[in-house]
Write a structure and sequence with these properties.
This is ArsR family transcriptional regulator. The chain is α+β, with helices and mostly antiparallel strands. The protein has six helices and three strands. A hairpin with a 2-residue loop joins strand 2 and strand 3.
């Protein structure tokens, strides 16, 4: 979860995710949308990929990137479950039921 939030802390990386929201793009197509060097874009893409937020596929001489929406969704859901006061009792109940105990006693 920590890697995801570190990746999301950067404005350029959030913009890259927005660009990838509806279509996969090549690294060159992504770089063309920014006023920074291609190595800087490559570093941002590497961070997003190591956080599991994007995946890449090499096709010929180009590398294409796409979102991994399930990872972002699951990470954000897990975060919300940790900080949401309504979720805490529900998680206790769920754990008690899983363990075969009384959910009211947990």
């Amino acid at each position: 979860m920590q890697r995801v939030f570190e990746a999301l802390a950067s404005v350029p990386r959030r913009k890259i995710l927005a660009y990838l929201a509806h279509a996969e793009l090549s690294a060159g197509e992504i770089a063309a949308r920014f006023d920074m060097s291609k190595p800087s874009i490559s570093q941002h893409l590497s961070i997003l990929e190591s956080a599991g937020l994007v995946s890449s596929e090499k096709r010929g001489q180009f590398v294409y990137y796409r979102l991994v929406p399930d990872n972002l969704t699951n990470t954000l859901n897990g975060f919300v479950q940790e900080v949401c006061p309504v979720a805490r009792p529900l998680k206790r109940e769920s754990a008690a039921r899983r363990d075969g105990g009384n959910p009211d006693a947990a």
